[in-house]
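HOLO CASE FILE
Compound: pyridoxal-5'-phosphate
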Amino acid sequence: MELFKTYKLWPIEPVKGRGCRVWDKQGNEYLDFYGGHAVISVGHCHPDYLAALTEQAGKLGFYSNAVENSLQTTLAAKLGATCGYPDYNLFLCNSGAEANENAMKLASFATGRSKVLACTKAFHGRTSGAVAVTDNPKIQSPFNKTGNVEFIPLNDVAALESKLSTKEFAAFIVEGIQGVAGIWEPGAEFLKAARAACDATGTLLIMDEVQSGYGRTGRFYAHQHYGIKADIVSMAKGMGNGFPIGAIIINPAIEATYGMLGTTFGGNHLACAAAIAVLDIINKENLVDNAAKQGEYLMKQLSGNPAVKQLRGRGLMAGIEVKEGFEGLRDRLLFEKHVFTGGAGANVIRLLPPLCISKEEIDLFIERFNELTA
Ligand SMILES: Cc1ncc(COP(=O)(O)O)c(C=O)c1O
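Model generated. Tokens follow.
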């Protein structure tokens, strides 16, 4: 059997990781400014994380959601205390797409409405509902296209207010920062207007923090920079530092009924042990503050570089839009300078390093970036 060729692969196989570095099979060292796509939050193979996973694997790896699991309640309490939503309820699942599926399904249950409003260029995942609110015809099959979804341009307050005024929408879903689209922020004015329009029309506000959450932007969730609260927040990537886990947190005004949401693997013992360890490390090592501080330093060091057309983003979710002629820079960073970065089209490099990145590692990145551009 061969692999179904749905991924375009770089010819590199990382086999070892520590902190913000990985090594390939040949022993070459790479600086990780990609974090395996914003997933590595507390660093590769953090000793506390390894200890927590190993200990739990030796006790009990899995049992079903039909029985009590105090790891889940511990995770809920710790997440509530850390993320600024202590009174919200937690539902655990396995991925970002699944978190968004459950968020939209729950909004539809709660409001009795069937439609969801989303933003152009949005990415919310690849499962049926999540891809239906994703604005990319290339990944949306005819099966996923539905009349239940409408799109407005990000930051278009008038379009948002006009659509929601019909009171047809169960939810408005928007990313904390649009990542796949190339690092585009919703403005404070737009999110405040969204909050007000949702309140006025009985629509639920879903913030997709799958990529921008878990401290990456220098606040636990990106939307907290704008002083608004969501009704449902979805998260995944950084939550397990590589162990698959996703979640939504839910306004306590939304009532649960038995069986309305469910999953076999969501919230299993190993996933919870990983997620608890991640939160403990984030808190112990002040990684949210580190993301804010190092992100600011990174942006300062990049500004004025002759290859840069525009710098976007916050904290350690940074987008470098490069000038014409620099389209191959991401590949050159990887193959010539041994730096992993993310991309968004040919002309945007996405920087999503682990939250534990140091000033010295940023200096090293800048040195290598400058060697190719200055
Ligand atoms: C904002 C956002 N939402 C949802 C997803 C989907 O997450 P997953 O790949 O875990 O299903 C992603 C993945 O890149 C994302 O960036």
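CASE NOTES: Residues 47-284 form a domain with the Aspartate Aminotransferase; domain 2 fold (CATH 3.40.640.10). The chain has two domains: 14-33+286-373, 47-284.
CLOSED: yes
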